[in-house]
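Lab meeting notes turned into a lecture example. A postdoc, R.K., suggested we walk through two folding results consecutively so the class can see how the record format repeats. The first protein's sequence and structure tokens come next.
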Amino acid sequence: MKSKLTRKNPMQVPSPVGKYSHVTIIPKDATMYAFSGQIGVGQDDQLPQTLHEQIANTLKNIEMILTAEGMDATQVVKVNIWATEEIDWDYFYQQWEAMFNDSYPSMTIAYVSALGLPAIKIEIEIWAAK
């Protein structure tokens, strides 16, 4: 699916410190989608113990929810990430690039003391448009 979104990093602003875009422009005729935060529960309805496994499952869950709405990662506008422990960015970006290639959405990341359940180590919320 071809995205109508425009992503850019203005030259007047310092370069992003990660794999995201400073600006994502949504065309006026687009329909916005707000998705609840996704966590790393697997297809077996179990939440793995490691952050790496939770990251992989969370991104798979996001891909599946996008597909259910007839969308793909190119239509993601904004990503909000909350984690309870330090993210291994080498691992995260490997998964991230597999999902987004080089069309990075806008992103916010926060480290928090807890999420909805004690075993949840990461939650990722997306906004998308088509």
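The second example is placed directly after the first for contrast:
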Amino acid sequence: MNHDSTRNGQAADMSTVQLVERLTEQVSTLVRTEINAGMAEMKEKGTRVGIGIGISGAGAMLMFLGLATLIATAVLGLATVLSAWLAALIVAVAVLALGGILAAVGASKAKKAVPPVPQDTAASVSDDIAAIKKGIR
């Protein structure tokens, strides 16, 4: 019997060896398909994250420059009532305290973050495993 003709033939007409070959091919195809789907999903997510990071970086830089200007304004404003060195010291301590609080909150949030996973592919693989288990029984 020709191997190509058994590929599309009914399972009842195939020998055990042919069925095992067919199963091996199908499992290989399934695994490759799931891996490719996972890679495509991660690539798409990576692209979106990269664009978002770039835009956010430009916005953060502008915010940094605005904040630096506001800090200089605060020092100049306090310098009208206090010595310039004392005004600069007060503003510097306030900025450092605020920065420390924000850094602590950010570190806490980062620790709780989940690593990115291809969720759609993971769900599909789970469905495949369930189907295989059901077929074995």
